[in-house]
Amino acid sequence: MHRTCRIAFHGTVAAVALAAVLAGGQAGARAAQRQGPVDLTAQAAPAKPAPAPATAAAKAAPAAAVPTEAPETPTSLADLPPPPPPLAHWTLADAKALLAAIRGIGADGLFARDYEPAALTAAIAKGEGDELDQLASRLFVWLAQDIRDGRTPMTARVQWFAVDPDQDIHPDAALLAQATETHDVAGVLESLKPTHPDYAQLKDMLTKTKDPKQIGMIRANMDRWRWLGRDLGLQYLMINVPEQELRLTVNNKIIRTYRAIVGKPGKTATPQLAEQVKNVVFNPTWTVPQSIVVGEGLGARLLASPARAKREGYVATKNADGTITVVQQPGENNSLGRVKLDMPNEHAIYIHDTPNRNLFALPARALSHGCIRAERATELAMTMAILGADLPPDTAVEYNLSGKYTKVPMTKPWAVYITYFTVARDVNGLMRSFGDIYNRDAPVIASFAKPRELHTSQRKSNEAIIKLDNPL
């Protein structure tokens, strides 16, 4: 059997099996998890035939309506202090419940001292009134913000561009009103904590760990879960960069794992993102970056030798302005391999195959210019096309074997999270630590040793976007 056919056959068998498991699991999960992760497929339009591919109540004012997506924050507003916190009336019972939550927050890797327990105790002793209302409202909002969004200031979240939607879904004023009107302070705060199983395991590790360095790492990684949305969705892809692994996850359960190649440390480090797969591309083309076309002289050499260009699978074009465009055609040696998962973002990061599949055997795989290369990418892409685009398995095989560029648009949302956890479950389900390949633990841990900073309107890192012309 030809090598390409073998890849398509094995990828199809695995993808069809996965699709059957996932399709069955989605129905049960939707019925069993009314309060749990949201089924992303429910947000899509009704199923259609296989898509045609493209070839080649507080005292404060009521909270505003919740947007469907986190708004982009203008750079000029990123460091503005927040508005005054909302205000509510506090009964003594509710204030005592808040004090108990503050005193117990160490179990979640936060610090009771940040929320002024002594001052709250004194205010409670004086009884109900404006002083208690002002203090308890402010401390509740601080605690809710840190549980919901994380304690780490944005300046310490290096290359973190994944916008957390939770503050749009659960704004401060609404949380405060809910806590004081239902008299369920503990329940409201508990509802903001991450639901991913790793968070619970980190919390358990924290109670058993004595080494200060390990405690610092556990706290940092618990906070990283708070930087993400509490509800990650029913099905999603998650790449943990330090582990160099990609997971296909349904209902927070890992269905399949794939070794991944991630960005080299330095300016080619892979940024942390929360995106959506928009297209599955079979037999992708690759537009060669100008750093190679011009810098390495490839364009001039190919124009001088059309036979060589054809032999090596390139099409070189001299443009009217004198520049040269070089596009590598689909094929076994294409730099993107045989498939690509398109997830448009300002960093030009995506997931793709590679002709150099031997690299997945290496223990250290921080080798790319930022993009994610996935092991068994054909299997992954077919699974995504079958489940996310209603593509029949036979059609997926046809597209893959055609040798022609074919883009299949997703008809159902499928989230992708590129994360950075240095303490997490490994592929065997065991909690362990991973090398901090980009040295991103230190600023997070250092921020925990400093007084809590007020939250601002900044939603993601304000570092310059490094959009490399060669993201492979």
Describe the structure.
36% of the residues lie in helices and 15% in strands. By secondary structure, it is α+β, with helices and mostly antiparallel strands. The chain has three domains: 3-56 and 239-285 and 330-419, L,D-transpeptidase catalytic domain-like; 88-230 and 440-448, no CATH class; 290-328, no CATH class. Helix 3 (117-126) runs antiparallel to helix 4, helix 4 crosses helix 6 and helix 13 crosses helix 14. It is elongated. The two termini are 30 Å apart. Mean pLDDT is 87; it is low at 27-50 and 57-78.
Write a compact overview of the structure shown.
This protein is α+β, with helices and mostly antiparallel strands.
Keywords:
single chain, 472 residues, alpha+beta, L,D-transpeptidase catalytic domain-like, 3 domains, twelve-stranded mixed β-sheet, three-stranded antiparallel β-sheet, 36% helix, elongated
